[in-house]
What does this fold into?
Amino acid sequence: MTAPQDETVKSMRTPLGRVRNLGASHSGTTDFWRQRITAVAMVLLMVPVIVVVMMLLGNNHAGASQRLASPLVAIVLLLFIIASTWHMKIGMQVVIEDYVHHEQLKLAAIIANNFFSFAVALASIYAILKLSSGV
Amino acid sequence: MTARIERPLSPHLQTYRWTLTMALSIVHRATGVALYFGTLLLAWWLIAAASGPTAYAHVHAFIASIFGRLIVFGYTWALLHHLFSGIRHLVWDLGYGFKANERETMTWGALVAGISATVLLWIVAYMIGSG
It folds into this structure.
C-alpha cells in the first residue's frame, strides 16, 4: 500500500466526518428541528392565545389596549408571535424551495420571505411593547 | 462531473390514486401559506391598537364587515386545522401512527376537530360580545 498522493487531502478528517450533520446548506437539521420546537410551543400557547383573543372581543380601543398592556397577556402574545413568525419563515422557505426552480427567482423569494417574516415579527413585537409601556 | 445523469424521477402527483392523507397533506400546506399572509391581519390589529382609537376603529370596522368576518372565520379554521393536522405530523415524527387505520383515523380526527373547534369558538365569540 502506498500513501495517498492526492494533493487535496490535507485534513485528517474523513469526507464523511466533514459533512456529517451539515448537509449542502451547512446548517444540517437546524431548520427541521426549529420548525418542530416552534410547533410544540404553539400547541402549548394555543389555549392561552384563544383566551386572550376572547377577552378582547367586544372591547373598544381603550379597553383592548388596556388589556393588551397587562403583562401576562403581553407575554403570551409575544411568545406566540416569536414562535409563529419563526415557524412560518421556515415553512414558507420549504414551499419556495419546492416550487420555485429558477435559481435567481428562488433566491429573491427566500430573501423576500426573510424580510416579510422579520417585519411582521418586529412590527407586532413593537406594538405590544408600546402598549405595555403605556405611552 | 457536469454531465447530467438521467436519474429516475418520481411520478407526477396526478398519476397517484387520490387518498385522504394526500389531500390533507396539501390542505396542511395551503392553510400554512394562508396563515403566513393572515399574520398581516394580526400585525395590523396590534399596530392599530398601539396607534390609537382612529386606527383601531378602522380595524374594527373591517372585522365587523361581512368580508372581514369571512376572512377572520377562514383564518380561525386555517389556524385550528393547521394545529390539529400539525399535531398529527408531530405524532408521525415520533414514529407512531403509520398503520393504515391509524393514519386514516388521525387524519379524519384532525379534519373534524379543526371544523368543530372553529364552529365552537365562533359560537362562544358571538355569545361573549359579537366582535
The CA atoms of residues 38 and 86 of chain A lie 7 Å apart. Chain A has one domain: 30-133. The mean pLDDT of chain A is 89.
